[in-house]
């Protein structure tokens, strides 16, 4: 869908009034910006991480895990901004949480961004910084190519996790401990000659 098609479908004069923001787009500084496609490997990693986080939420009943196209309008200094993290966890009572029908004005407690072939370092870093500034407590930046997870925290600290280390939920998601191999793709080996 092009920006023109999105405007035509939603019949709005100001794109910032679109709610929810159309599939495959984010609202950046009041303009619809197409989100680049992920690729199969990154999508597989995203799905595995969502599965693990959803399992933790179901087991502990301490929150909800949301994947993919959910938009967040949680940037008070940028009211015409909607970001769509790959995975988010909102700590809450899942039995009483009422999910918004459109974009959420809620700040996710955990955001996961999976690096994909079409991501740029600048765009990814901007997304992470915006969520942390909005109040997200922890962001995991997962890089399938380097097999590394960067844990970026609200206090500005950054920690790198590589195999064989386990990734933990720290104080935010108590009891969560998972091997990186549980969600990273298998190691690629060079063909033998």
TrEMBL record:
<dbReference type="InterPro" id="IPR008538">
    <property type="entry name" value="Uma2"/>
</dbReference>
<dbReference type="GO" id="GO:0004519">
    <property type="term" value="F:endonuclease activity"/>
</dbReference>
<keyword id="KW-0255">Endonuclease</keyword>
<protein>
    <submittedName>
        <fullName>Uma2 family endonuclease</fullName>
    </submittedName>
</protein>
<dbReference type="InterPro" id="IPR012296">
    <property type="entry name" value="Nuclease_put_TT1808"/>
</dbReference>
<feature type="domain" description="Putative restriction endonuclease">
    <location>
        <begin position="25"/>
        <end position="180"/>
    </location>
</feature>
<keyword id="KW-0378">Hydrolase</keyword>
<dbReference type="InterPro" id="IPR011335">
    <property type="entry name" value="Restrct_endonuc-II-like"/>
</dbReference>
<dbReference type="Pfam" id="PF05685">
    <property type="entry name" value="Uma2"/>
</dbReference>
<keyword id="KW-0540">Nuclease</keyword>
């Amino acid at each position: 869908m092009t920006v023109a098609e999105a405007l035509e479908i939603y019949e709005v004069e100001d794109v910032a009034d679109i709610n929810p923001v159309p599939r495959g787009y984010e609202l950046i500084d009041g303009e619809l910006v197409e989100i680049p496609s992920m690729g199969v490997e990154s999508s597989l990693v995203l799905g595995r991480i969502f599965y693990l986080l959803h399992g933790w939420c179901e087991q502990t009943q301490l929150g909800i895990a949301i994947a993919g196209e959910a938009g967040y309008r949680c940037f008070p200094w940028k009211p015409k901004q909607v970001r769509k993290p790959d995975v988010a966890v909102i700590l809450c009572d899942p039995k009483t949480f009422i999910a918004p029908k459109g974009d959420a004005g809620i700040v996710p407690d955990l955001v996961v961004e999976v690096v994909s072939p079409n991501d740029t370092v600048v765009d990814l870093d901007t997304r992470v910084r915006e969520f942390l500034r909005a109040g997200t407590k922890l962001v995991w930046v997962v890089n399938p190519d380097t097999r590394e997870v960067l844990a970026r925290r609200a206090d500005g600290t950054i920690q790198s996790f590589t195999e064989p280390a386990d990734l933990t939920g720290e104080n935010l998601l108590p009891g969560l401990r998972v091997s990186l191999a549980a969600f990273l793709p298998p190691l690629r080996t060079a063909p033998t000659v």
